[in-house]
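queue> pop job 88
queue> type: inverse folding (structure -> sequence)
queue> payload:
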Protein backbone atom coordinates (compact mmCIF):
# COMPACT_ATOMS: atom_id res chain seq x y z
CA UNK A 1 0.00 0.00 0.00
CA UNK A 2 1.33 3.41 -0.96
CA UNK A 3 1.97 5.82 1.90
CA UNK A 4 0.76 8.69 -0.33
CA UNK A 5 -2.13 8.55 -2.80
CA UNK A 6 -2.23 10.74 -5.90
CA UNK A 7 -5.02 11.63 -8.31
CA UNK A 8 -5.78 14.49 -10.72
CA UNK A 9 -9.30 15.88 -10.99
CA UNK A 10 -10.32 18.96 -13.02
CA UNK A 11 -6.78 20.40 -13.17
CA UNK A 12 -6.37 19.79 -9.43
CA UNK A 13 -3.73 17.35 -8.15
CA UNK A 14 -4.91 15.68 -4.94
CA UNK A 15 -2.11 14.40 -2.71
CA UNK A 16 -3.36 12.28 0.20
CA UNK A 17 -1.30 11.09 3.16
CA UNK A 18 -2.12 7.41 3.52
CA UNK A 19 -0.92 5.89 6.79
CA UNK A 20 -4.22 6.19 8.67
CA UNK A 21 -3.38 3.26 10.95
CA UNK A 22 -0.39 5.33 12.17
CA UNK A 23 -2.32 8.61 12.22
CA UNK A 24 -0.29 9.54 9.13
CA UNK A 25 2.94 9.74 11.08
CA UNK A 26 5.75 10.52 8.66
CA UNK A 27 8.37 7.83 8.17
CA UNK A 28 11.13 8.10 5.58
CA UNK A 29 9.11 6.25 2.96
CA UNK A 30 6.16 8.61 3.33
CA UNK A 31 8.34 11.70 3.10
CA UNK A 32 10.03 10.42 -0.05
CA UNK A 33 6.67 9.45 -1.58
CA UNK A 34 5.25 12.84 -0.65
CA UNK A 35 8.14 14.68 -2.27
CA UNK A 36 7.76 12.56 -5.39
CA UNK A 37 4.06 13.42 -5.64
CA UNK A 38 4.78 17.15 -5.22
CA UNK A 39 7.35 16.88 -8.02
CA UNK A 40 4.86 15.00 -10.21
CA UNK A 41 2.22 17.69 -9.72
CA UNK A 42 4.74 20.44 -10.42
CA UNK A 43 5.83 18.81 -13.69
CA UNK A 44 2.32 18.09 -15.01
CA UNK A 45 1.12 20.94 -17.24
CA UNK A 46 -2.47 19.75 -16.79
CA UNK A 47 -2.26 20.52 -13.06
CA UNK A 48 -2.96 24.10 -12.01
CA UNK A 49 -3.61 23.70 -8.27
CA UNK A 50 -2.45 21.18 -5.65
CA UNK A 51 -4.57 20.01 -2.72
CA UNK A 52 -2.81 18.24 0.16
CA UNK A 53 -5.10 16.17 2.38
CA UNK A 54 -5.07 13.00 4.49
CA UNK A 55 -6.92 9.72 4.70
CA UNK A 56 -8.20 8.65 8.12
CA UNK A 57 -9.24 10.69 11.13
CA UNK A 58 -6.09 12.77 11.57
CA UNK A 59 -4.00 14.85 9.21
CA UNK A 60 -0.70 13.81 10.82
CA UNK A 61 0.71 12.95 14.23
CA UNK A 62 4.10 14.29 13.09
CA UNK A 63 7.38 12.41 12.75
CA UNK A 64 7.45 8.65 13.15
CA UNK A 65 10.48 8.50 15.44
CA UNK A 66 10.45 4.72 15.62
CA UNK A 67 11.46 4.53 11.98
CA UNK A 68 13.19 7.77 11.02
CA UNK A 69 16.51 7.26 12.82
CA UNK A 70 17.22 4.23 10.62
CA UNK A 71 18.33 6.59 7.87
CA UNK A 72 20.73 8.56 10.02
CA UNK A 73 23.88 6.45 9.93
CA UNK A 74 26.31 7.23 7.12
CA UNK A 75 29.61 5.36 6.77
CA UNK A 76 32.53 7.38 8.05
CA UNK A 77 30.32 10.14 9.43
CA UNK A 78 29.46 10.96 13.03
CA UNK A 79 25.87 10.58 14.20
CA UNK A 80 25.58 14.36 14.43
CA UNK A 81 26.84 14.96 10.89
CA UNK A 82 24.77 12.10 9.47
CA UNK A 83 21.53 13.07 11.18
CA UNK A 84 21.91 16.77 10.41
CA UNK A 85 22.26 15.95 6.70
CA UNK A 86 19.24 13.61 6.83
CA UNK A 87 16.99 16.20 8.45
CA UNK A 88 18.30 19.01 6.25
CA UNK A 89 17.10 17.02 3.24
CA UNK A 90 13.90 15.34 4.50
CA UNK A 91 12.51 18.12 6.66
CA UNK A 92 13.80 21.61 5.92
CA UNK A 93 14.82 20.82 2.35
CA UNK A 94 11.58 19.15 1.26
CA UNK A 95 9.46 21.86 2.92
CA UNK A 96 11.37 24.64 1.19
CA UNK A 97 10.97 22.91 -2.17
CA UNK A 98 7.22 22.43 -1.71
CA UNK A 99 6.83 26.05 -0.66
CA UNK A 100 8.43 27.29 -3.89
CA UNK A 101 6.61 25.07 -6.41
CA UNK A 102 5.11 27.64 -8.83
CA UNK A 103 1.53 26.40 -8.48
CA UNK A 104 -0.99 27.35 -5.78
CA UNK A 105 -1.35 24.74 -3.05
CA UNK A 106 -4.06 24.17 -0.45
CA UNK A 107 -3.69 22.09 2.71
CA UNK A 108 -6.96 20.52 3.93
CA UNK A 109 -6.36 19.55 7.55
CA UNK A 110 -8.38 17.73 10.20
CA UNK A 111 -7.95 16.16 13.59
CA UNK A 112 -4.39 16.07 14.90
CA UNK A 113 -1.81 18.30 13.21
CA UNK A 114 1.19 17.90 15.48
CA UNK A 115 4.77 19.19 15.22
CA UNK A 116 6.22 17.54 12.10
CA UNK A 117 2.82 17.96 10.45
CA UNK A 118 3.48 21.71 10.50
CA UNK A 119 6.47 21.08 8.21
CA UNK A 120 3.96 19.74 5.70
CA UNK A 121 1.15 22.32 5.89
CA UNK A 122 3.09 25.55 6.37
CA UNK A 123 4.74 25.38 2.91
CA UNK A 124 1.24 25.39 1.38
CA UNK A 125 -0.18 28.69 0.16
CA UNK A 126 -3.61 28.31 1.74
CA UNK A 127 -4.91 26.22 4.65
CA UNK A 128 -8.50 25.06 5.10
CA UNK A 129 -9.09 23.48 8.51
CA UNK A 130 -11.92 21.27 9.68
CA UNK A 131 -13.55 22.44 12.88
CA UNK A 132 -12.11 19.46 14.79
CA UNK A 133 -8.48 20.31 13.93
CA UNK A 134 -5.95 21.00 16.63
CA UNK A 135 -2.35 22.13 16.21
CA UNK A 136 0.68 21.83 18.47
CA UNK A 137 4.47 21.85 18.53
CA UNK A 138 5.46 20.13 21.79
CA UNK A 139 9.09 19.36 20.96
CA UNK A 140 10.43 21.64 23.69
CA UNK A 141 9.72 18.55 25.79
CA UNK A 142 12.75 17.08 24.02
CA UNK A 143 14.90 20.12 24.76
CA UNK A 144 14.57 21.33 21.17
CA UNK A 145 13.43 24.74 19.93
CA UNK A 146 10.54 23.73 17.68
CA UNK A 147 10.16 21.76 14.46
CA UNK A 148 12.60 21.90 11.58
CA UNK A 149 10.67 24.21 9.23
CA UNK A 150 10.55 26.93 11.86
CA UNK A 151 7.95 29.26 10.33
CA UNK A 152 6.16 29.82 13.64
CA UNK A 153 6.77 33.57 13.78
CA UNK A 154 5.66 34.08 10.18
CA UNK A 155 2.56 31.93 10.56
CA UNK A 156 1.37 33.08 13.99
CA UNK A 157 3.05 36.35 14.90
CA UNK A 158 5.79 36.49 17.50
CA UNK A 159 3.67 36.38 20.68
CA UNK A 160 1.47 33.46 19.67
CA UNK A 161 4.55 31.69 18.31
CA UNK A 162 6.26 32.01 21.67
CA UNK A 163 3.18 30.73 23.47
CA UNK A 164 3.02 27.72 21.16
CA UNK A 165 6.68 26.90 21.78
CA UNK A 166 6.82 27.75 25.49
CA UNK A 167 3.76 25.71 26.48
CA UNK A 168 3.59 22.95 23.88
CA UNK A 169 -0.18 23.08 24.26
CA UNK A 170 -2.65 22.39 21.48
CA UNK A 171 -4.71 25.15 19.97
CA UNK A 172 -7.89 24.94 17.96
CA UNK A 173 -8.76 25.66 14.36
CA UNK A 174 -10.65 28.77 15.47
CA UNK A 175 -7.55 30.03 17.32
CA UNK A 176 -5.48 29.36 14.21
CA UNK A 177 -7.99 31.34 12.14
CA UNK A 178 -7.83 34.23 14.59
CA UNK A 179 -4.03 34.25 14.34
CA UNK A 180 -4.16 34.23 10.54
CA UNK A 181 -2.52 30.81 10.21
CA UNK A 182 -5.48 29.28 8.35
CA UNK A 183 -7.72 30.83 5.72
CA UNK A 184 -11.01 29.31 6.79
CA UNK A 185 -12.56 26.82 9.21
CA UNK A 186 -15.27 24.50 7.89
CA UNK A 187 -17.36 21.60 9.21
CA UNK A 188 -15.43 18.32 9.07
CA UNK A 189 -18.05 16.84 6.74
CA UNK A 190 -17.40 19.63 4.23
CA UNK A 191 -13.60 19.76 4.39
CA UNK A 192 -12.77 17.95 1.16
CA UNK A 193 -15.59 19.51 -0.84
CA UNK A 194 -14.77 23.05 0.27
CA UNK A 195 -11.05 22.57 -0.38
CA UNK A 196 -11.85 21.29 -3.87
CA UNK A 197 -14.29 24.14 -4.53
CA UNK A 198 -11.56 26.61 -3.61
CA UNK A 199 -9.04 24.76 -5.79
CA UNK A 200 -11.40 24.81 -8.79
CA UNK A 201 -12.06 28.52 -8.29
CA UNK A 202 -8.33 29.19 -8.34
CA UNK A 203 -7.75 26.88 -11.32
CA UNK A 204 -9.97 29.13 -13.44
CA UNK A 205 -7.29 31.82 -13.23
CA UNK A 206 -4.41 32.17 -15.67
CA UNK A 207 -1.51 29.84 -14.79
CA UNK A 208 1.16 32.47 -15.45
CA UNK A 209 -0.64 35.00 -13.27
CA UNK A 210 -0.97 32.45 -10.47
CA UNK A 211 2.73 31.56 -10.61
CA UNK A 212 3.81 35.18 -10.66
CA UNK A 213 1.45 36.12 -7.84
CA UNK A 214 2.82 33.32 -5.71
CA UNK A 215 6.38 34.32 -6.53
CA UNK A 216 5.70 37.94 -5.65
CA UNK A 217 4.42 37.06 -2.17
CA UNK A 218 7.14 34.49 -1.48
CA UNK A 219 9.85 36.89 -2.59
CA UNK A 220 8.42 39.53 -0.26
CA UNK A 221 8.73 37.04 2.60
CA UNK A 222 12.30 36.29 1.54
CA UNK A 223 13.19 39.99 1.45
CA UNK A 224 11.85 40.19 5.00
CA UNK A 225 14.31 37.43 5.91
CA UNK A 226 12.19 34.28 6.04
CA UNK A 227 14.69 31.95 4.36
CA UNK A 228 17.58 33.16 6.51
CA UNK A 229 15.42 32.80 9.62
CA UNK A 230 14.44 29.24 8.67
CA UNK A 231 18.08 28.18 8.27
CA UNK A 232 19.11 29.90 11.50
CA UNK A 233 16.30 28.23 13.44
CA UNK A 234 17.15 24.83 11.91
CA UNK A 235 20.71 25.17 13.18
CA UNK A 236 19.39 26.14 16.62
CA UNK A 237 17.11 23.09 16.48
CA UNK A 238 20.24 21.02 15.96
CA UNK A 239 21.98 22.56 18.93
CA UNK A 240 19.08 21.10 20.93
CA UNK A 241 19.65 17.67 19.40
CA UNK A 242 23.34 17.78 20.28
CA UNK A 243 22.54 18.80 23.85
CA UNK A 244 19.95 16.02 24.18
CA UNK A 245 22.49 13.46 22.98
CA UNK A 246 25.04 14.64 25.54
CA UNK A 247 22.64 14.88 28.46
CA UNK A 248 20.42 11.83 27.94
CA UNK A 249 22.69 9.35 26.19
CA UNK A 250 19.88 8.35 23.80
CA UNK A 251 20.36 8.28 20.03
CA UNK A 252 19.14 11.44 18.35
CA UNK A 253 15.39 11.82 18.16
CA UNK A 254 14.73 8.51 19.86
CA UNK A 255 15.25 10.13 23.26
CA UNK A 256 12.41 10.25 25.73
CA UNK A 257 11.11 13.77 26.42
CA UNK A 258 13.22 15.59 28.99
CA UNK A 259 10.03 16.69 30.69
CA UNK A 260 6.34 16.72 29.92
CA UNK A 261 3.81 19.07 31.38
CA UNK A 262 0.78 17.25 30.01
CA UNK A 263 1.76 13.59 30.17
CA UNK A 264 1.97 13.12 26.40
CA UNK A 265 4.79 12.24 24.06
CA UNK A 266 3.39 14.68 21.56
CA UNK A 267 4.70 14.54 18.03
CA UNK A 268 6.07 11.14 17.88
CA UNK A 269 4.50 8.11 19.58
CA UNK A 270 3.09 5.63 17.10
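queue> result:
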Amino acid sequence: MSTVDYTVNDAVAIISLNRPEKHNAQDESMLQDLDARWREAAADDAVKVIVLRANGDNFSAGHDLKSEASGYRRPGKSILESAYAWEAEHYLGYSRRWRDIPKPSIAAVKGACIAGALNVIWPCDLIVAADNTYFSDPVAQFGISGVEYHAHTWELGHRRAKEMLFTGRSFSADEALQAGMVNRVVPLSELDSQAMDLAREISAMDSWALAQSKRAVNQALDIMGQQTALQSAFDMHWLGHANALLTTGYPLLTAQPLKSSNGTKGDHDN
